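Reviewer 2 asked us to include a model.

Predict the structure of this chain.
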Amino acid sequence: MKKTLTIGNIQVPNQLILAPMAGYTDSPYRRCCKKFGVGLLYSEVISSLGLVFGNKKTFEMMKFHPDEHPISLQLFGNSPDKMAEAAKAGEQFGFDLIDLNLGCPAPKIVKNGAGGELLKDPMKLPELFRTVVQAVSIPVTIKMRVGYQPEANVVREVAIMAEEAGIQAIAIHGSTVIQNSLGSRQWGPIREAKESVSIPILANGGIKKPSDILTLLEETKADGVMIGRAALGRPWFFRDCLAILEGQDPYKIDHHAIDTNEMFAVIQQQIEWMLECKGEVTTIREMRTHLHHYLKGFPESSQVKDKINKTKNLEELRNILRTYKNTFFAL
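Predicted model (structure tokens):
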């Protein structure tokens, strides 16, 4: 049965959350996922320093459409004061929640002592949590991994400290920072966190098909499911998950054929939304990455992706997609 989710004073209409993914979960793609029912959205991971010092690119990444509420601003950094200042800016910008990144394994982030690097020394985290929580009036959450090293499970320790400091929810990816996306089905520590605190726990990692959410919820007893890679090029993945939560046959949902007419309509919608906020040059460049996921596994997709990678203007891109659709998917 589909349930709602409450984080602080924010009501989320269901248990499904789109994970923050750098280079993917910008406003146009978030809006596509919202059309298919996702309950809570996150920004791409945002530099607290970039926000504090007024970096133009950082502010561009923060833009969101009114339809995206509720939406969380995810911040990375290692200075409690700078993170608090950035959180204040996020609240003023109109975000509903602030999320602190404690799990990103990207070298450019961890080498600066941020992201997953913060899990190396959990005793420093309470100061960060308290400083940010006290700086804003909206809920503050964290997204973390099981630990830094494979043998270093710090979930229970961090969860308890987070709740005591006023954190309102914790999203946990079932792998360590070193493992990155490998080993993402370490669900035992997520359940351990759920048993240790009273605030919502969001389980993340290991989702491949819609029915996996049932296993994840059962194994972890989590309050919600955060979905990332499984939704790339498949924003309708959330609709399928909701159908399963509402009692529809998981096997049928997992194995039903993709409506290619709908897929191409979603692609065109995403292109239009990207044009509105990014312009033609950036739209063409960034859609190449999205189209790699949309078209994966379809006939001669590698050839059409090669053409897309070489296109120089929007009309050419639209013609390539139109020709491909009419050639391989015409009724």
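The chain is about 45% helix and 15% strand. The two ends are 36 Å apart (CA to CA). We have added this to the supplementary material.
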